[in-house]
Design a protein that fits this description.
By secondary structure, the chain is of the alpha+beta class. The chain has helices spanning about 20-30, 65-75, 85-105, 135-150, 215-225, 255-260, 280, 290-295, 310-320, 340-350, 350-360, 415-435, 445-460, 470-480, 490-505, 520-545, 605-610; strands at about 5-15, 35-40, 55, 120, 130, 155, 160-165, 170-180, 185-195, 230, 235-240, 260-265, 330-335, 370-380, 380, 395-400, 565-570, 590-595. The chain has 17 helices and 18 strands. The strands form 4 sheets. Strands 1, 2, 6, 7, 8, 9 and 16 form a 7-stranded mixed β-sheet that branches. It has a 4-stranded antiparallel β-sheet with strand order 15-10-17-18, covered by helices on one side. A 4-stranded antiparallel β-sheet has the order 11-14-13-12, with helices on one face. The N and C termini lie far apart (about 60 Å).
Length: about 625
């Protein structure tokens, strides 16, 4: 077996997006030796792509906003599948976390009075998103990264973690991976581990997600004995670019609609008025003229239908395209040109202006954009305790997009960046407390390290195996066509079978060339995670026989109250010795699924949900 280097820390945090950085800052602040490990360069995590803003009831634009309204919006947006305690903590703590970012140097856009400016986003009752133009994620990462490095967090960048390691008692005690630049292996021991590896979108053909979002954290957590929750609830963002093909899926931020953009079909109709659900109808304008007035008169609390929650907008676009009223490239039109001046568009939406100009040759100050749904966000993920972010595997904590619970079946825009800083901080505290309570030297099973390294190197040993790119392509096609925005039982059954077949193929892929920056090999090591999370999504979707939030079943088109009372929890029995999956991991066949009753909401929060003025 090749040699590997070793490092020992109190806490290791895997992932350097907003969640991982915030967790590392907190663990380090508690005086613990903290390492931050990430597979891309520091500062390049997917969080930099976040555009629209961070949701927090600061009340700067609408003084009547408060945590209770934010809590209610989040629960309603998630169609009540959310973990109420996470939604409560998130709404209560987000304002302090945003102000803290400001103290650490983040330069938010300002109101005339010098307060942090907040913009409208779908599903939020009040303008609530603190933002920096449409480059909020970049500013958040810049601020957190500077703080983490200045505070002395030790960074291991371009290290891809392959597996978590446990001690003889099954407590998570480290991780093993390899340096992408050299291909050399590295093992970490730690008293506790935080996972913050982000999303899962790379398993779909069209996605807004960066190359990092291969679901590694969710898969590694499952392999180490943790549970996942609500994996079927994948969010398809309503507005991704639909052409040119090379950038299909790239996000068109909700800020375009938040700042007044409207959706039209090929007949020029503003079709969203036809898709307003009953629960919103009383408050939503029923003509375009009235919809326009909402922008001038917030006191009426009227909302343009383009700002319905994302699941509603994505399904409506899908229906228009299916009805033959789509744009030339299979989307619909998003028009900001007729709503804002060219100067305002360039000032408020600079990234969108450049994105369309450079990639599609479209001037959005003069023409409409063509947009359509794209795989965007994992609402579900690793199951955690709300207060501590502890997973069901001892020693392991999880925060950020890879954790499930907060968003229920559908996340509101802006609620991810706030999730990262609220639960990133809590993960840092949880992991630090666990580490402080752990005495004695941490040991790991060296056999686990050896088997992870051998499995990672196996593609080089195999002659004539399949290309990992072909397997990945077929997985993306399967997920896009069979586990996409609208699902049916028979297609999901078919997807389950196809994922099993792809797993067999992935176990036999070959890699050639050297170990340094070898993209084919790197992809081969991503496939086990992608297959594991894809199976979880398909299996969850098959079991959730209803339509709710980000999950739509054509054969069960309505929400079912019985299904709405449970979370689907998935796991791999810790007793398994199966290593027949790709990369020597447990086969996707070993993933179990169980409906578990939702945690009971206390009466005072129930009362908040029932307030009539909520919608
Ligand atoms: P990420 O930022 O995805 O970071 C994951 C980290 O884990 C990276 O450092 C990566 O290198 C590392 N990693 C992954 N796997 C491994 C491994 N095996 N080994 C080592 N390291 C690993 N949300 C909002 O609230 N507001 C917005 O305006 C908004 N805009 C968005 C715009 C776009 C285009 C997209 C795609 C998303 C947007 N989101 C927005 C969602 C939000 O950006 C993400 O949900 C969030 O940034 C995820 O942060 P994270 O810290 O959980 O993970």
């Amino acid at each position: 077996m090749p040699e590997y280097e070793t490092h020992d820390f109190d806490v290791i945090v895997i992932g350097a997006g907003g969640a991982g950085l915030r967790a590392a800052i907190e663990a380090n602040a508690k005086g613990l030796r903290t390492a931050l490990v990430c597979k891309s360069l520091l500062g390049k995590a997917h969080t930099v792509m976040a555009e629209g803003g961070v949701a927090a009831a600061l009340g700067n634009v609408y003084p009547e906003d408060n945590w209770e309204v934010h809590f209610r919006d989040t629960m309603r947006g998630g169609k009540m599948l959310n973990n109420w305690r996470m939604a409560q903590l998130h709404a209560q703590e987000a304002p302090d976390r945003v102000r803290e970012l400001e103290e650490w140097g983040a330069l938010f856009d300002r109101t005339k009075d010098g307060l942090i400016l907040q913009r409208d986003f779908g599903g939020h009752r009040y303008a609530r998103l603190a933002h920096v133009g449409d480059r909020t994620g970049l500013e958040m990462i810049r601020t957190l990264q500077q703080k983490a490095v200045a505070d002395g967090v030790e960074v291991f960048m371009e290290v891809k973690v392959l597996r978590l390691l446990r001690d003889a008692d099954g407590v998570v005690s480290g991780a093993v991976g390899y340096w992408r630049p050299s291909g050399e292996f590295v093992a970490f021991t730690a008293k506790s581990v935080v996972l913050a590896t982000g999303g899962i979108g790379r398993s779909w053909m069209y996605t807004t997600n960066s190359w990092e979002s291969t679901g590694d954290g969710v898969a590694m957590a499952l392999w180490a004995g943790a549970d996942a929750i609500e994996m079927e609830c994948v969010q398809f963002h309503p507005t991704g670019m639909v052409w040119p093909m090379s950038v299909r899926g790239l996000l068109v931020t909700e800020a375009v609609r938040g700042d007044g953009g409207v959706l039209r079909n090929s007949d020029g109709e503003r079709f969203m008025f036809d898709y307003i659900p009953e629960m919103f109808a009383a408050e939503t304008a029923d003509s375009e003229a009235e919809g326009d007035r909402w922008y001038d008169d917030h006191a009426n609390n009227r909302r343009p239908p383009e700002l319905l929650p994302r699941d509603e907008v994505a399904r409506s676009i899908n229906s228009e395209v299916k009805a033959g009223r789509g744009s030339p490239h299979g989307g619909v039109f998003l028009d900001i040109a007729s709503r804002l001046s060219a100067e305002d568009i360039r000032r408020r939406l600079p990234s969108m202006y450049h994105q369309f100009k450079e990639l599609a040759g479209v001037d959005i100050t003069a023409e409409a954009m063509e947009v359509g749904p794209t795989c965007h966000y994992a609402n579900g993920g690793v199951r955690v305790d709300a207060d501590s972010t502890a997973t069901t595997a001892p020693g392991l904590f999880a925060a950020g997009e890879l954790a499930g619970g907060l968003h229920g079946s559908n996340r509101l825009g802006g609620n991810s960046l706030s999730d990262l800083i609220v639960f990133g901080r809590r993960a840092g505290i949880g992991a630090a407390e666990f580490a402080e309570g752990r005495t004695g030297r941490v040991t790991v099973d060296e056999g686990e390290i050896a088997s992870a390294i051998e499995a990672a190197l196996a593609p080089f040993e195999r002659d004539g195996g399949e290309s990992p790119y072909d397997v990945h392509h077929d997985l993306q096609t399967t997920m896009q066509s069979l586990v996409g925005i609208i699902r049916t039982g028979s297609e999901l059954e078919e997807a389950m079978g196809k994922i099993e077949a792809l797993e067999e193929r992935a176990a036999n892929v070959s890699a050639s060339g050297g170990h340094q920056y070898n993209p084919g090999w790197n992809l081969a090591t991503d496939l086990p995670s992608m297959l594991t999370v894809s199976r979880c999504v398909a299996q969850g979707a098959l079991n959730r026989r209803e339509s709710r939030g980000g999950h739509t079943r054509q054969d069960f088109p309505r929400p079912d109250p019985e299904m709405g009372s449970v979370n689907f929890v998935q796991g791999i029995p810790t007793s398994t010795t199966d290593t027949s999956g790709a990369g020597g991991t447990p086969s996707v066949r070993s993933i179990t699924i169980t409906p578990v009753p939702l945690p009971v909401m206390p009466d005072e929060l129930k009362a908040l949900m029932e307030l009539k003025e909520a919608y």
